[in-house]
């Protein structure tokens, strides 16, 4: 499916970063393989939250730079294949996303579905696994942090008031430490645990496969996208997050 002129699915930022943190941004990009055209969608749909996590890449890059941490970015639109979903998830290749029908995703054959998964999803997660393997081999402590953003309201749905969601599933220890630090530092910010989503094996991939299965400290961040749609918001929110990450990691290191 990918041609020689298409982007590679994954970009490693700050490969020599020395921090304990590893950041991943699975919905960073909005690229579409040339052979898929525009997925049958008008341009306005391809800049909405359905196509990528608005502001998440910029925040992740700032976090990487501030902490001297490695970062893996996934460059293709989640409408092509969602790199934070297992293959079995209905929205791994969504036919409809927030009320928008995606024509190029309708009636795909098993071969076409596998093609997208094999050429974009698997290479990205192979790079994540390889990076984590290298860190384990050298004895480098690792805290895995996935950076996402969410829309303040889905079409026809209720308002989502949260400004920050801090997500985890089986092992909430680092997420809870981060959340406590963030709330203490930012008492007027509307933050919550496991909102507007939760993490589970059916609807998520990165945390279950790379965080939980490896026994790494981890969390998934969801930042409301209207807060990080410009450089000022990205700078402010990366600073707020960095402070709480450092405090949570220092607390964990003392235990």
Helix fraction, binned, reads 25-40%
- Taking pLDDT < 50 over at least 5 consecutive residues as the criterion, the unreliable ranges are none
> What is the radius of gyration computed over CA atoms, rounded to a whole number of angstroms?
18 Å
Question: Mind summarizing the main beta sheet?
Answer: 7 strands, mixed
Output the CATH homologous superfamily. Answer: Zn-dependent exopeptidases
The mean pLDDT is: 98
Short summary of the structure?
This protein has helices at about 55-65, 110-135, 175-185, 205-210, 230-255, and strands at about 10-15, 20-25, 70-75, 95, 100, 145-150, 165, 190-195, 215-225. It has about 260 residues and is of the alpha/beta class.
Topology readout:
Elements: E1 10-13, E2 21-25, H1 56-67, E3 70-74, E4 96-97, E5 100-101, H2 110-137, E6 143-150, E7 164-167, H3 173-185, E8 191-193, H4 206-212, E9 217-224, H5 231-254
Parallel strand pairs: 2-3, 2-6, 6-9, 7-8
Antiparallel strand pairs: 1-3, 4-5, 7-9
Features:
Aminopeptidase, 33% helix, 5 helices, alpha/beta, 255 residues, seven-stranded mixed sheet, 9 strands, 16% strand
């Amino acid at each position: 499916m990918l041609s020689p002129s298409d982007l590679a699915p994954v970009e490693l930022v700050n490969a020599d970063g020395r921090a304990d943190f590893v950041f991943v941004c699975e919905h960073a990009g909005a690229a579409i393989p040339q052979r898929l055209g525009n997925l049958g969608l008008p341009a306005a749909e391809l800049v909405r939250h359905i196509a990528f996590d608005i502001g998440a890449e910029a925040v992740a890059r700032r976090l990487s730079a501030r902490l001297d941490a490695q970062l893996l970015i996934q460059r293709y639109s989640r409408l092509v294949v969602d790199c934070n979903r297992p293959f079995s998830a209905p929205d791994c290749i969504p036919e409809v996303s927030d009320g928008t029908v995606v024509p190029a995703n309708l009636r795909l054959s098993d071969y076409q579905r596998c093609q997208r998964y094999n050429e974009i999803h698997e290479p990205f997660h192979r790079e994540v696994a390889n990076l984590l393997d290298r860190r384990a081999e050298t004895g480098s402590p690792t805290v895995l942090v996935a950076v996402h953003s969410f829309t303040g309201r889905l079409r026809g749905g209720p308002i989502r008031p949260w400004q920050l969601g801090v997500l985890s599933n089986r092992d909430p220890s680092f997420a809870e430490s981060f959340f406590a630090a963030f709330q203490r530092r930012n008492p007027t910010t509307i933050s919550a645990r496991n909102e507007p989503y939760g993490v589970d094996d059916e609807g998520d991939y990165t945390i279950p496969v790379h965080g939980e299965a490896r026994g790494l400290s981890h969390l998934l961040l969801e930042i409301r996208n209207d807060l990080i749609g410009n450089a000022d918001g990205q700078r402010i929110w990366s600073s707020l997050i960095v402070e709480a990450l450092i405090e949570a990691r220092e607390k964990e290191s003392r235990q």
